[in-house]
Amino acid sequence: MKPSLVLKMGQQLTMTPQLQQAIRLLQLSTLDLQQEIQEALDSNPMLEREEDGDDFDNSDPMAEGTETVASETAPKQESYDEPTPAAENLEDGDWGERIPNELPVDTAWEDIYQTSASSLPSNDDDEWDFTSRTSAGVSLQSHLLWQLNLSPMSDTDRLIGETLIDCINDQGYLEESLEEILDSFDPELEIELDEIEVVLHRIQQFEPSGVGARDLRECLLLQLRQPAQPTPWLEQARYLIENHLEVLASRDYSLLMRRMKIKEDELRQVIELIQSLNPRPGSQIETSEPEYVVPDVIVRKHNERWLVELNQDAIPRLRVNAQYAGFVKRADSSADNTFMRNQLQEARWFIKSLLSRNETLMKVATQIVEHQKGFLEYGDEAMKPLVLHDIAEAVGMHESTISRVTTQKYMHTPRGIYELKYFFSSHVSTSEGGECSSTAIRAIIKKLVAAENQKKPLSDSKIAGLLEAQGIQVARRTVAKYRESLGIAPSSERKRLI
């Protein structure tokens, strides 16, 4: 068979740059999309943000002449010649006074001149909290080093303290033994084991209480060492932790009552005091920055109907800059005109991709609300089974598109803010031939555990039996999986004294 040239005609799907951009914008979260929009505004002069009060053109951004339709609102020129009210105050008020050549010793600027900081709440204001106005977290090590620097000690002890703090993990426990820490020092320093232990005792007095402990027993005892106020059952709690902590972990309360020679009500109060302690004191220090969730869709009920609308405050509206678009000449092929023409086309593509994203998100959210009206009315127990295929068929899109549009997108409902993927769940067959959502089963398990007898908590087999009595056929291992996903401990660890 000799080679030959053959001409064929066929069709194939090609991922154009415009389609790739639309898909990429579709799967971005609101915060990521805001950053993407800001980068587009910084790089493309043809794009501008619509400010409040501006006349916005709702015509098709891909249509020809878009740049001339909105050209009637040209950018405003700001004048800096007229004096502002602040400048007038500077001329007439105390700020216009000259700074004296010499000031009294220990004089602060605020003692003589007004500052913008005077508008801030004073330190005497009980409602003002500095930590609530700071977004950056503080690590446990930096918090301990700050306290160490405030403690009077020698240079050698400070070096030992810094080494000990480096060996404390995020939970607040000392990971290395004192012997290993001693071996890490230079022998020429002539540091002894007793010195390290003394410095460790100093660190164990720092906040948070219980930090620097070598095990759980020592951590709990440190927190009971210096209570802020007289505490009943303090001695009994110390005795229990020192001698019978393993028995308490096994929840053998009858053995504890015999060994400590106390009654059940007294043991319950001792255990309540121990449970008020923090076994992980380092977790009190917030080390990560707070993460904020901005809902993409808002759902509300009006006149017995559920309304779905996009969160317009989360995504800024864009348009083509009319003044710059008017500079583009159709017949000009110069480099500058070609650059502006390309930027104009990219701006149109970007705006169309944003409109397509909003339309797709609106369609998917509307169908989710249509399927999950029971959840909005009655809660998790009324959640219906829902998979991506159901929404894909309803809106006429592929399942991959539905997966992208529901990733990191949030819906604000009267019951709270939920990720769109929360409304999707598998189903379990019922005895009547129907289906029950796994989310509804989790809600029922949580309700059963909350109402159980704490002296005799429900086992997984018992919960499975109670679900079967309601017509829900669930195996014991499935109940255990749902229970673990809810963060509910096994029955042996939920046993309590009433």
UniProtKB/TrEMBL annotation:
Pfam families xrefs: Sigma54_AID, Sigma54_CBD, Sigma54_DBD
Residue spans of biased composition, Acidic residues class: 49-58
Keyword Lipid biosynthesis: no
Record region (Disordered): 41-101
Molecular function, one GO term: nucleotidyltransferase activity
Superkingdom of origin: Bacteria
GO biological process, one term: DNA-templated transcription initiation
Role summary: Sigma factors are initiation factors that promote the attachment of RNA polymerase to specific initiation sites and are then released.
Matches recorded under NCBIfam families: PRK05932.1-2, PRK12469.1, rpoN_sigma
Listed name of the protein: RNA polymerase sigma-54 factor
Organism for this UniProt entry: Stutzerimonas kirkiae
